[in-house]
Write a structure and sequence with these properties.
Two copies of one chain form a homodimer. By secondary structure, chain A is α/β, with parallel strands linked by helices. Chain A has 17 helices and twelve strands. In chain A, strands 8-7-6-9-10-12-11 form a seven-stranded mixed sheet. A five-stranded mixed sheet of chain A has the order 1-3-2-4-5. In chain A, a hairpin with a 4-residue loop joins β2 and β3. Chain A is elongated and about 70 Å long. In chain A, about 50% of the residues are buried. Chains A and B meet through α4, α13, β11 and α14 of A and α4, α13, β11 and α14 of B.
């Protein structure tokens, strides 16, 4: 089904030239001939219509800009409503990611062009810049996030689906429990947390494992929310929420934990990250980092990095190891939760759409479209692209707390029966 | 208990000078003041006698050589019987490794000296050189290895102790089963094995999982043994043992597996290793590498590398990632079995000692002492030194065979009841 024109009365009358049609065919080649259709504003069609998914360019400029940096421009044009997608948005993006992954797997000139298109530097993360970058995203308003994140723990990180049919609430509880079990926490442990979000992990640790937590975060609105919740639940004596960069951690702890912060730091700051952990971890201490990662060193999708997560730069495992190896930390366990994040994002997206009316009261339509393409694109990148979710457990060589086998992660089942039946 | 002389009638009459005594004290400092004693041939004693462990230098030359490269010279002098150890040899070496690890953790000049002492290049592993290096170790005679390895699977790699009290046979069965479950093998899978040893893994795969295996190995005597065992067990149609370097693998497979080979290759050959895997693995394939590793990039103990495992160079995880990331392999799971190898080596050592009489019929006393210090030093290096055991599971992005959770590793229990009760 290549190069045919179908009748479409809703498109503008500015008819495409033969060059426009040729360029659409070139674009289709450039992104690896995904099993979807591409269409011009008059209905001129290229590609595969079997899936029912069609990306339509609404004007000539939208087409031309797509040829320059397709993966960046898609987000821009979708947000500006100069491009629309018929069919499921996540599936559409999965098919594009699949095609791009296949190009890379085949190697050669096409793969080089692909990598060149993607190559660029993310924003640097000095202490001040980090604060700006994080403010841009995490201070959008707690009310906004509470509409579509899980209701109990307000986790804006990958959940863990012991079974695919779990609710989001169950899967986030399972994730928190998994983190605790990996760390083999015991009552009285002192824990320092880097990037505490809305405080859900610290509350879970304090409540269920009887540990003390010092939790660092540079998002003012998250810290305010976390403090209030801790007071409400009577945990204020066990948890101290500190509004500061984790690189300013002071003190000495049994356990270092960080869930969903490392991806905001960038490999350029990993030497400092390792040094911070080395300074604050006791001689027999242990630690855990949960982060979005990449299959190999490469920047995040440029549109996401510029418009959604300024400064973000998910690392490859090789890059992550530069945190641990210079300080002689033993890496005990690495788990890749890639498929779990694809599922988590689909949950978020569904709730986001379910609350569209309320979100429209908070933000303009462009913001909502940007957010929808961000959540959809991320779901697709985890299922078919290069995004990974790494959980890395590490320890000082002298640490005796982590058992030699992984049985503790499964027995008893991660989800207590009361949760499973909720 | 520093610098005292005790009476010992068994030592030579060539009395140590004050310089000798001063050097012994310096040596004790250099290795980080371990909680053991050091003694000269006349009984002059330095250190800590509370553990009952004393290393005795039998002549002046032994003392002087120890000062130059203590970790190398220890093996040489023990083998030549110019140094002896009172008390448990593994514990003695653990205490030295612990002290050296502590020096490194403290950093500074002492750590730099330590690293400098250790810095050197292992032998290169061209295809021809690999064959020589492997011949030197693995062709010592199957009868020798059969005396002290597990009786069922002849595994000369780390076992997996679901419980510490398992027999060596049970723990090696559990290891083989763990490998299969990590790979989520299914009947009909085509498997290529790099470095097949005496063929135990290939037999286990063929017998218990109904897969076909092409197993590469450059040790002639191992291949001959493996072929005979496969014929005896009627597996010759499922397993092809190929006497060739794995870098010459031809064909296309669902699964790549390698247990205990990567440590012999060296990081300089990892680019070629990744390229070989990329060539022989199907588009939806998966793979598994089990290897001795290091906490951070550093050479193997020089004595072990020169006298026991020529060319060996266990990698750090960062170095291992250079196999996977350039080819876009997704790393799904990394487990560090470090404590399991310490336990495995203690089993081997005990059996080695139990069969000392038979081994003395095969080799000269120097070989036996060398082997004993090698097994003991390795046990100590896994429990207190920098050696690690990494199991890395990886997959093509398009692979659908590896489940999203790890339940399969534990349920049903790794050891079938019949094995547990044996």
């Amino acid at each position: 089904m290549n190069g045919s024109t179908t009748h479409n009365t809703h498109l503008p009358s500015n008819a495409p030239s033969s060059t426009d049609c040729w360029l659409l065919r070139k674009l289709y080649e450039l992104v690896g001939r995904p099993s979807i259709g591409l269409q011009l504003w008059d209905g001129y069609f290229v590609g595969d219509d079997s899936s029912g998914i069609v990306i339509c360019f609404h004007d000539r400029g939208a087409l031309y800009r797509s040829l320059y940096k397709p993966t960046y421009t898609f987000g821009v044009l979708y947000t500006e409503e100069r491009l629309s997608v018929a069919g499921d948005l996540v599936t559409a993006l999965e098919k594009i990611y699949q095609a791009l992954t296949d190009i890379e797997a085949r190697g050669g000139a096409a793969a080089q062009i692909g990598r060149k298109i993607a190559a660029r530097r993310p924003r640097r993360n000095s202490l001040d810049r980090s604060r700006e970058n994080i403010h841009a995203h995490y201070d959008l308003g707690n009310d906004f996030y509470k509409l579509w994140l899980d209701r109990e723990h307000t986790q804006y990180t990958c959940a863990y689906f012991t079974k695919p049919e779990l609710t989001l609430e169950q899967a986030q509880s399972a994730k928190l429990e998994l983190v605790c079990r990996k760390l083999a926490l015991k009552p009285g442990d002192s824990v320092v947390e880097a990037g505490g979000g809305w405080g859900g992990l610290a509350r879970y640790l304090a409540k269920n494992y009887g540990v003390r937590v010092a939790s660092y975060n540079i998002s003012a609105s998250q810290v305010a929310y976390a403090r209030e919740r801790a007071r409400e639940e009577g945990l204020q004596d066990q948890i101290e929420y500190i509004e500061d960069d984790f690189r300013n951690i002071r003190g000495s702890f049994d356990v270092f934990v960080s869930v969903g912060m490392l991806e905001h730091i960038g490999p350029g700051n990993f030497a400092a990250t390792g040094a911070t952990i080395d300074t604050c971890l006791k001689d027999d201490g242990r630690g855990f980092i949960h982060t979005i990662g990449q299959i190999s060193p490469r920047p995040l999708n440029e549109w996401i990095e510029r418009h959604i997560f300024p400064g973000a730069a998910p690392p490859s495992l090789e890059q992550m190891m530069t945190i641990f190896e210079p300080h002689g930390f033993v890496v005990s366990d690495v788990e890749n939760l890639r498929p779990h994040y694809a599922l988590t994002l689909r949950h978020w997206l569904r709730r986001f759409d379910e609350h569209a009316d309320e979100i429209e009261q908070m933000f303009d339509p462009e913001f909502i479209r940007a957010w929808r393409i961000y959540l959809s694109g991320s779901a697709a990148a985890f299922s078919k692209g290069s995004l990974q979710l790494f959980q890395v457990l590490f320890q000082r060589p002298g640490c005796q707390d982590i058992p030699a086998t992984r049985d503790r992660l499964f027995d008893p089942p991660l989800l207590a029966p009361t949760l499973s039946s909720s």
